[in-house]
Amino acid sequence: MDFLVIQALTGLASASSLFLVASGLTLIFGVTRIVNFAHGSLFMLGAYGAWTFTSGLGWAAHAGPLGFWGGVLLSALAVAALGALVEVVLLRRIYQAPALFPLLATFGLALMIEDLVRLVWGPEDLLGPRAPGLEGAVTILGQKLPAYDLALIALGPMVLAGLWWVLHRTHWGVLVRAATQDRAMVGALGVDQSRLFTGVFALGAFLAALGGAVQVPREAVHHALDMQVIVEAFVIVVVGGLGNVVGAFLAAVLVAELNAFGILLFPRIGLVLLFLVMAVVLVLRPHGLLGRPEGETRAAVPPTAGCWRPAGATGWAVGLALAGLLALLPLVADAYVVSVAAEILIFALFAASLHLMMGVGGMVSFGHAAWFGLGAYGAALAALGLGAPMAVGLVAGPLLAVAGATVAGWFCVRLSGVFLAMLTLAFAQIAWSVVFQWHEVTGGDNGLLGIWPDRWASDPAAFYWVSLAVCGVAIALLRSIVFSPFGYALRACRDSVARAEAIGIDRVRVQWLGFVMAGGFAGLAGALYAYLKGSVFPEAMAIPVSIDGLVMVLLGGLTTLVGPVVGAVAYKTLAIVVSSWTDHWPLVLGGLIVLLVIAAPDGLAGLARRVARAASRGAGPGGREPAS
Amino acid sequence: MTLEVRGLSAWRGRARILHDLSFSVAAGEAVALLGRNGAGKTSTLGALMGLIPETRGDARFNGVPILGLPSHRIARLGVGYVPEDRRIFTDLTVNENLAVGRRPPRPGVPVWTIERLVTLFPSLAGLRDRRGGQMSGGEQQMLTIARTLMGNPSLVLLDDPSEGLAPRVVDHMIQALRSMKTEGVGLLLSDQSLTVARHVCDRAIVIEKGRLVHDGSVAALDADPALHGAFLAL
Which regions span the lipid bilayer (chain A) (predicted)? Predict the structure, then answer.
């Protein structure tokens, strides 16, 4: 009993820090409708900053409580200034863009920050100082609790009260609440939205950094904090209701207590429990505990460029000719190039499957790697557990992915926009943690080794041809789905749910089926990947693979049909070239994402089309040119 | 001259929704913007308020070009906007709604305080701590006009202010609009029929399919069944 009380108090202490991060995230979303993926990075910077100001520089260590809390505050203020800068330089350009773009841009930022943190502070964990005056422990019911935890328990409600005061008792706060409801109207009443947004972003960054800074005496500072925190903060914000500060507080307590007790009861499925709670809350209350339905949600993806047309005889001829040309590669290239080419083909299929979901279905996924990974594990388990030949493995993999996508899809298609994207992320994390922790079956982080293709396909050239055939047929199939009656229904749901439902389309079923199909094709790519590499590790279904897929689709052009394939080839080639001359691929990738979102949101295919149109417009009759 | 519009065109996506509109509103004048459903009334007001990004032509307010300006800059020049769907901040109290609209006084323009607004809209008097979402449609319409007046505008654009209101509430609103006009606030108000315009406005402009088709006195329009039938009847 006594032990449970202490455990509950420890949970509350963690809840405070989580609430600080989540409140900032939810405030920013409420006003700007941007989900800030870099919020965990701001938390991490706050922690590193506090470490530097309180012990890294050496001068504050002797200054007592003033030095410690001064350092914490200084760090949070510095990060707030950085947040304001990010808002002005980056986010201000993309407020009107579909929800996918701000999400990706801030993710790119997160990648860059993580790499820069590694450059500045080094890769080792850093141990912070204890808070002066709060080093000891307090005895409660015969159990000891760090005094610092008590201080943290008090901090959460204090910040909540402070935020409430600001939002309800200051003119600025009234404007923030008004803008949370209707930004355009606030503007029409003479309020400068840009300045309001900058202020809100700075406040959100301040809260995130403060959350990180106060954790320094409790936990080591390391450069994986960002993703760890952002995933938890997402869950809290979604469970509490996007934009709702009080909801974030309740959800932070819920999540922290769940962590504290979940680990006791089910030590190995703590993370799974977390996401299960989120899934349950979202299905029962799609807008979170205290959230309310969004008045007008903006589109998740941009409208398609022009009108998609079936390939026609010429198109198929070009496709076949291209495949024939690709089939000649092993005759002129060495084994390394051939196996790299096979990998590119596999990722082209992965990107094309994600495109079915996003570009055709309008459902943004941040967890598509889950199906890729399940496909890989399905094939690996068939090969190792049953000794099945490759043909069976290539069926077993997609089947496992389809099974997983069927379950996840049932939940996901009940939501839309950023909520759906976050839920896909949650399911991918569940799948990852199951694979990571279920040692007996998956080998945990040791992975599964020794998955080789059948003898007839074991030569790199032979395997390349197999990959070419499988991926070529699958991509052609994906394309024909787009122009099937089902594809039309899926596109109708993407363009207007209300209109699609009004003409009798069962939106939930159509999107569910689209979700499952996309998962199945991703699983096929994953199964091939397992045989290509000869091994499977949990990394195959981790966040970076999902992001790779997103960048490929975006790079090629989300709004076109050839985009994903072009993007996969360009992205993989770029990754291989850049990785060969620098260790800072995340920095380059992050910069690339940010640049892409700002300068070429329609990708390479869109860029090419714009160039072509500009060239033809020079000759033909000019289009209209609005003044602004 | 307060508002001077020359050759205003606007687009939504690829569709052109306004075609070379030219008209003006003098200082303190009340002008009705009439036309059938879908004629472009809301778009005209939206374009003038900076809410439609793709526009061409010229619109000047007290000599300052306003097309292409962000809407908060236009509002700060003294143009008030009362949208069609009212867009009350439902989570905020009446006082807070009014606070969002508050701007500093402008020389030569009537200055509004919450006390004066309560005299103008007596129905708001007892509701100052009520949340916007808990008010009736008529009360919300009064609040949205009051909120706009908190910015001390010299011209107010009203988008179909009588829509969906009970006749008695419409009468109250007509009285309020006439008081505003007497104070010297210019009005440009869209109306599907002549319900409000007849009692408030001096001049009427009629648009059809995004084009200006008539500009004359309200009395003349009201008296001429042929004009009436050509431009306004369904």
Answer: 6-30, 42-62, 68-91, 150-167, 196-217, 229-255, 261-284, 305-329, 335-357, 420-439, 462-490, 510-531, 551-571, 583-600
Residue with tokens 């993806």: A301
Nearest residue to A549 via CA among A581, A589, A494, A588: A589
Instruction: Please give the Cα distance from A532 to A525 (Å, whole number).
Output: 10
- Reported as a single tens digit per residue, the pLDDT across B165-178 is 899 999 999 999 99
Interface test with A, best of B56, B87, B159 (most A CBs within 10 A): B87
Which of B68, B76, B96 faces A190 most closely, judged by CB atoms? B76
Condensed to tens digits (0 to 9), the pLDDT of residues B80-96 reads 999 988 889 998 999 99
Tell me if ipTM is over 0.90: yes
Domain hosting A568: range is 331-616
Distance CA B24, CA A103 (A): 44
Q: Please give the Cα distance from A236 to A249 (Å, whole number).
A: 8
Q: Which amino acid is at B64?
A: V
Which amino acid appears at position A8 of this protein?
A
Helices (H), A534-584: 543-556, 563-581
The pair of structure tokens assigned to A485 is 């009656």
- Distances in Å between the alpha carbon of A488 and those of A57, A98, A308, A356? 62, 22, 11, 12
Across chain B, how many H-helices and E-strands are there?
A: 9, 10
Cβ neighbours for A434, distance < 8 A, ≥ 6 positions apart: A269, A272, A442
Residues 6+ apart with CB under 8 A from A297: A416, A417
Q: Is residue B93 left, alpha or beta, with left meaning phi > 0 and alpha meaning psi from -120 to 50?
A: beta
In three-state form (DSSP H/G/I as H, E/B as E, the rest C), the secondary structure along A491-509 is HHHHHCHHHHHHCCCCHHH
Q: What pLDDT score does A511 carry?
A: 95
Which element (helix H / strand E) includes B24?
Answer: strand B15-25
> Is the Cβ pair B11, A178 closer than 8 Å?
no
Whole-angstrom distance, CA of residue A516 vs CA of residue A490: 13
Q: Considering only CB atoms, which chain B residues are within 8 Å of A182?
A: 87, 89
Reported for A134-141, long-range contacts at CB under 8 A and 24+ positions apart, including other chains, are A134/A217, A140/A2, A140/A5, A140/A6, A140/A9, A141/A1, A141/A2, A141/A5, A141/A6
* Cα–Cα distance, A7 to A13 (Å, whole number): 10
Angle at CA of residue B118, ends B117 and B122, nearest 5°? 130
CA distance B194 to chain A (A): 26
Show the domains of chain B with their CATH numbers. 2-231 (3.40.50.300)
Q: For residue A619, name the pLDDT band (cuts at 50, 70, 90).
A: very low
- Please indicate whether, in this complex, the C-beta atoms of B51 and A184 are within 8 angstroms of each other: yes
CATH number, residue A164 = 1.10.3470
For the entire predicted model, the pTM comes to 0.84
Burial (0-12, 13-18, 19+ Cβ within 10 Å), B115: exposed
First CA to last CA distance, chain B: 34
Residue of chain B whose alpha carbon sits nearest to that of A175:
B100
Using pLDDT thresholds of 50, 70 and 90, give the confidence band for residue A229.
confident
**Average of per-residue pLDDT values in chain A:** 86
Does A335 lie in the same domain as A259?
no
Q: Which residue among A245, A263, A284 closes a domain?
A: A284
B68: nearest CA partner in chain A: A628
Strand, helix or coil at A110? helix
B12 bridge partner residues: B15
Q: Are residues A280 and A340 in the same domain?
A: no
Domain check: are A237 and A337 in the same one?
no
Residues 6+ apart with CB under 8 A from A169: none
Residue A304: burial class (beta carbons within 10 Å; 0-12, 13-18, 19+): middle
Pair (A265, A372) in one structural domain = no
The domain tally of chain A equals: 2
Q: What is the pLDDT of residue B18?
A: 94
Q: Are residues A273 and A341 in the same domain?
A: no
